[in-house]
Amino acid sequence: MPEITISASDGSGSFSAYVATPKGVPAGVVVMIQEIFGVNHAMRALSDWVADMGFIAISPDLFWRLEPGVQLTDGSKEEWDQAFALMNAFDQAKGIEDLKATVEVARTLPGSNGKVGTMGFCLGGRLAFMMATQSDADVNISYYGVGLDGLLDGAGAIKAPLLVHIAERDRFVPAEAREKIVAGLAGKPDVAVHVYPGVDHAFARMGGHSWDGRAATIANGRTAELLARVLG
């Protein structure tokens, strides 16, 4: 079951989602939220990693309304330009609707135990934070989300566990924004924020331009522990 099709909740069409299944079921499900490069090799590899941890992973194509099947890399200026153009044209509210539809489908996937979390990277890290404030997902994990400082007004709506991974030297998150995020989420029950010193945006994308093995291993360990606690 490498891909499934999910109907959009607004009736405007349907979108594909990559699915990776663990050896043992029933299992919790993790909705993997893409970077600005689409559901590319890196997102599929991350989904396979989540399946290796014993969870079902499902990664929906959120750019389908703009261009279905986008699979870019960070290896050329042309691909970066295309990725940023897609991000700027992307309707985040519609993206959240599509993620909610994915969560709903995930709860009843074959092999699902009914518990569903989200995990997002970059743009997906922002959307995972938005899912924490706007959805009924059982857990949400944000890796180097962009613009989180502008979403803090909704933090009071967070009811499920939230884990936020922040790169200290994130080129897209200034120090002032980072400090605002840390302060704005401090003391909130079941919300954990970790800043990883000396690393840049996308430090957990294996093979990417900013990959950092130490920070990624520590962050991924925290992620695995939280998923195991909440999703079983």
From TrEMBL:
Against SUPFAM superfamilies, the record matches this protein to:
alpha/beta-Hydrolases
Q: Which InterPro entries match?
A: AB_hydrolase_fold, Dienelactn_hydro, Dienelactone_hydrolase-like
**Designated name of the protein:** Dienelactone hydrolase family protein
Q: What Pfam family does this protein match (any one)?
A: DLH
- Is Hydrolase one of the keywords? yes
Tell me which residues make up the Dienelactone hydrolase domain: 15-230
Instruction: List keywords of the entry alphabetically.
Output: Hydrolase
**What would you give as a GO molecular function for this chain, any one?**
hydrolase activity
Q: Which domain of life is it from?
A: Bacteria
